[in-house]
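pinging the channel bc i need a second pair of eyes. not urgent but kinda urgent?? the chain im working w is below, pasted from the shared doc
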Amino acid sequence: MLELRDIRAAYGKIEVLHGLDLTVAAGEIITVIGANGAGKSTLLKAISGLVKLSGGSIALDGERLDTLSVEQVVSRRLIQVPEGRQLFGPLTVAENLALGSYSRRRKGTPVTERLKKVFALFPRLEERKGQQAGTLSGGEQQMLAIGRALMAEPRILLLDEPSMGLAPIIVRDIFATLRTLNQEGLTMVLVEQDARIALSLAHRGLVMERGRIVLADTSQGLLANPEVQAIYFGQRAGGRAGAGSGGGR
């Protein structure tokens, strides 16, 4: 479905991604873990067109995406939930959700039906639909960011650090919702700081270090990997995978 071949990306003269290969099948959840600066966020931005490639290719069902604009990528229903939510704070919950449907305002399921689905997934958003997004709690803002993305009826959802700054009980609720969405057929690529919960959700996982994929396995394989346990589950400090901080986010 989604194929990345030898992709490279740079900020100015500094190359951040160094020849990554990745294939994501329909219905899969792939999670990407690694230290800060490993290039995880840049990988998502490259897929969604926010960062242009300096080499390689990205294709969705055989169609090149890396030659398209961000708007054209979105129109292919490849949607990113950005780190930090990036909501329109002065606008209401309902207005933010309506903006999410803009790319498919004349296509697909009627907008009212999409709203019903989002409110069924996140009842708190319906309770606060007239409230300004900037006044919501962190957990509610993350629900709104995901809900806004769902209004575009994504085929592939890219999520960048959805648990950041949230209480553990809220994180569990959000990841339970993501699991439900995947069971309904939604494909996801997830960058997440909480390696344990991310791998528990995903089918496969990748470990990035300094702009390269240094380890790839099933999620269960990575959860059982002693090196991953040591570095990401707090059993010891240091190690190879994810040890470096260079290479950009």
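so The radius of gyration is 18 Å. and The beta strands are 2-11, 14-24, 29-34, 53-60, 63-64, 78-81, 156-160, 187-191, 204-209, 212-218. — does that match what u expected or am i reading it wrong
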